[in-house]
Design brief:
With 98 residues, the chain is mostly helical. The protein is built from 4 helices and 2 strands, in the order E-H-H-E-H-H. The chain has a two-stranded parallel ribbon with strand order 1-2. The protein starts with a strand and ends with a helix. The mean pLDDT is 86.
């Protein structure tokens, strides 16, 4: 049985991870990606994107850097969707005995 470790990070952790490369939230974010998969709801992604695009963060990190991080979150979500699709296809084949 494949037991993939799953991590759910809230918006505050995602934003903090983006703001400081040496912060504890960034360490958690990086380690979660290394050893498992990060799960997030649509609402969490939308909230993180809205927060990260706020002008108040301009003094901490550039808009292009924030956009790159948002793209990274999108890639995480797409990777998870691909994995779920593969799993669903395997389960469907088992169900119909292909």
């Amino acid at each position: 049985m494949n037991s993939i470790r799953k991590f759910v990070l809230d918006t505050n952790v995602l934003v903090s991870a983006m703001l400081s490369a040496k912060s504890k939230p960034r360490q958690v974010f990086d380690e979660a990606q290394k050893i498992g998969v990060i799960l997030m709801s649509n609402d969490t992604f939308i909230e993180a994107e809205e927060v990260l695009l706020r002008p108040k963060f301009d003094k901490y990190i550039t808009l292009p850097q924030r956009q790159i991080f948002i793209e990274e979150l999108i890639q995480i979500a797409l990777s998870l969707l691909k994995s779920m699709n593969k799993l669903m296809n395997v389960e469907t084949r088992k169900t119909i005995n292909i």
